[in-house]
Task: structure prediction
Amino acid sequence: MRDSVRRTILSASMITAFLTVWCGSAAANQITSATVSATCNGYTISVSGGNLDTQGVNFAVNYSITVTPDNGSPFNVSDTIPVSADGNLNFSASVTKAAGPLSGNFSLSGTATLVDSAGDTFNSVDISFSPNPLACESSPPPQCAETSSNSSNFNGTPIHGGSYIWFNSNFTASGIPSTGATITFTSSTISMPGLNADFAVPNAQITFSPSASCASTTFDSITNTWMTTVPLSGSDEIFLSGLALPVPAGFSGTVKGAVIWNGTFSSNVPGVSVKWKWGAAVYSTFSADYNALAVKATHQNACGITNGDHAGTPEGTDTSSGEPFKKFVIGGARGGGGSNFTGSWSGTTAVQLCP
Result:
C-alpha cells in the first residue's frame, strides 16, 4: 500500500514538473503581434515576436491585408518585412507604405506569418487595425498643380521588335516641411516619333514621411500608381514613374526626333519645388509586372539595396530564366547596355508648385 502511494505521489510529481517546464518554456520562433495604423493614403505595419533561436537562417514576416469596400469587390495588399533577433532573441520592426488614395468606406482584415529562408513557416497572428472601418472622403482637386514637359532624343542604336524600352524618371524636391508632404505625378504620357502614338504612363505618388528611415517603391495595380515612400531628407535621385513599353514586332530601326514626356505635378502643401529628368534603356527580356521589377526607389538609402545603381534600376529577377533583369539590358534608346540600366539622363526640368 505504501509503495502504491509512493508511486502515485512520484508520478504526480513528475507530471507536475513536466507541465511546469512545458508551460514555462516559450515556443521557439514566434510572432506575437501585428498592428496596422491605416490612412486613406497608406499604412504603417508593426510586428513583434521572440525566441528566434534557429541558426543560419534569415527570418521575415509575410503579411496579407484584405480591404473590403462598402461597395465593390475586395482587394488584397501583401508584402514581406525582414526581421532579425536582438540580444534577447526578440524582434520588432515597423514599415510605412503608401497606398491609394482611397475614396469610400472600407473594412480591414488580415494575418501576419513568421517564416524563414529555409522554407519553414511558423505561427500566424491576426492583424489589429486602427481605425477599422476606415472612412475616406473623396479628395478635392489638388490646389498646387503644374503641368511639365521634358524632351530629349534617343541615340542611334537600332531597336528591334520583341524588346522592351524601360522609360524611367526621377526627381529631387525642395521645400518639404518637417511634417512631410505628398507629391503626385498624373496624366503622364510619352510621345515617340516613328511609333506615332502617345503612350500613357502610370501615375505616381511620392510620400515624404517623417517615420521612414529608407526609401521603397511598390506598384498599386488597383489604382495603376507607382507608390514611393522616402525619408524627409529625400535623395539626389527619387524614382518618379516608369513605363515598360513593348516594341512592336514589326519595328526595327532608330527613333529620330524628340521623345517628349509630359505630366502634371501636384503637392498637398505649398512651396514645394521639383527638378526632374528621365532615361530610357532597352531590355531583351523584361516584365510588365511592375512589382516583379523591384525598382530601386532612390540612388541612395533604398530599403534593402546597398549598391550604387541609379534610381529606377530594375533590381528584380526574371522568373523564367532565374536571371536578374539587369543581365538583359542592351544598347538602344538612351542607353548603351552594359551597366547602364536606366539609360542616360535627359536634361533637368524645374517645376515650382504654389510659390
Notes: The chain has two domains: 30-136, 144-353. The chain is about 10% helix and 50% strand. Confidence is low (pLDDT under 50) at residues 4-25.
